[in-house]
Amino acid sequence: MRRSQYDAVIVGAGHNGLVAAAYLARAGRRVLVLERLPYTGGLAVSARAFPGVDARLSRYSYLVSLLPGKVVADLGLALDLRRRRFASYTPVGDTGLLVDNGDAARTAASFANVTGGTGDLAAWDRFYAMTARVARRLAPTLLEPLRDRAAAREEVVADAEAWRDLFERPIGEVVDERFADDTVRGVVLTDALIGTFADPSADLLANRCLLYHVVGDGTGDWNVPVGGMGAVSGALAEAAARHGAEIRTGTEVLAVDPGGEVVLRDASGAEHTVTGGHVLVNASPVILARLLGEGGADDPEGAQLKVNMVLARLPRLKDPFVDPAEAFSGTFHINEGREALARAYAQAGAGTIPALPPAEVYCHSLTDPSILGPALREAGAHTMTLFGLHMPARLFRKNPDKAREEALAATLASINSVLAEPIEDCLLRAPDGSPCLEAKTPVDLETEAGLPGGHIFHRDLSWPFAEDPAEAGRWGVETAHPRVLLCGAGARRGGGVSGIPGHNAAMAVLGAGS
């Protein structure tokens, strides 16, 4: 007979819910995890997206940066996270800007070729030395109770330049001041705009987005998970189960009572009630409000186009001095110069799909060929993941299918504008003859994954400290109800595949003595 009383009931088996479950079960708590979908992992999964094609794509989230090494070590996760040799490549006419993590001289020569001098490389080195200082100081605090703003400034970021330029001034203004070249400015700014619809010259939301892209685990590295993102969530599910957590998939939570009662519907359609000393909700604040029968949570708006592809071969570049395998193993920037980003933002803000959408791609299989079956590897096939910027959900509301087609066509035209051949000519064909390509808009994520507004961070990112002094000393996961905690990406210090809100929710429960 299944229990109905638990120390903690966790709503949602995404990666944060699994982190919380593993920590709590490891501490000897009775833990139940409830997942609506027939599998665990949420959006951190690997999938064979194209029938008959042996390629396991990271269909939604696709790289790992914010997952702390402490969480990996604490939970004994068997993960292989590989650093990418090439940070990025940005086509510029018939050449391009290559940032090579393993060859400083080659990077310097590429900067000189593209920018015509050494000034922007020196500014680049100074800027990222500054973000590295912040990352080393800030990353450990993400797994601790919140500091207030003053303590963050004095203790975490004891660096007047960094505090001014990353926390107080719009990052677009800072970038324009520090860098002269349009391409270099754009490469820096893309990290401030991933999944975030904002004007970096005016909106500090872009600063918050940049912070979460440069502080990951104290280094800011964006690493490739061997086996795809499903390997990350799979390791977390194994850890939770190993420590004794009970995980039920195909089980939808219908309501949560502030007193800890949870109403659920199982796979057979039968409704049941379970009770937890605490209820941890691994979902957006909007979903939490619905489960509690409350209003007041603002609807978020995602702003991205995700395109998954399998290629029969890598496309040729206009640049004869860079191998496509180098260019596509890091982040390949497409029409992401400073002016192009601003133009696309203005077009999207006016209600139209950008004419040449800014986007970036990378090929997971260049770093981790294990996600491809033997025949595909031998044939030279590769996966390609594209993340498109400035695609707010509002563009897809009226006619989702038509708008998706228009956005995809514009995005393919955008990537083709920087290649030596059309990307369509390089797509692998599935056994039925269809091209291996799928596109996901914010509305698709809302419909298919239950993500309100398709917002990949669940809501606008917050500063990683307490903006309200009354919140200092808390974990950033608390709600108005003492027994109900938010452990998804919408918690303070959430966003990305991090496990940080899951860890912090578990610490809040353990600190409460449940």
Description:
- The protein is of the alpha/beta class.
- Helix content is 35%, strand content 17%.
- The protein is built from 18 helices and 18 strands.
- Strands 1, 2, 9, 10, 11, 12 and 18 form a 7-stranded mixed β-sheet that branches.
- It is globular and about 65 Å long.
- The two termini are 23 Å apart.
- 54% of the residues are buried.
SS-based class:
alpha/beta
Q: What Rg is obtained from the alpha carbons, in whole angstroms?
A: 22 Å
The average pLDDT is 96
In total, the number of strands is: 18
Major β-sheet profile: 7 strands, mixed
Q: What distance separates the N and C termini?
A: 23 Å
State the low-pLDDT regions, or none: none
Q: How much strand content do the residues show?
A: 15-25%
Q: Counting H and I runs of at least 4 residues, what is the number of helices? A: 18
Roughly how much helix do the residues carry, as a percent range? 25-40%
The shape is globular
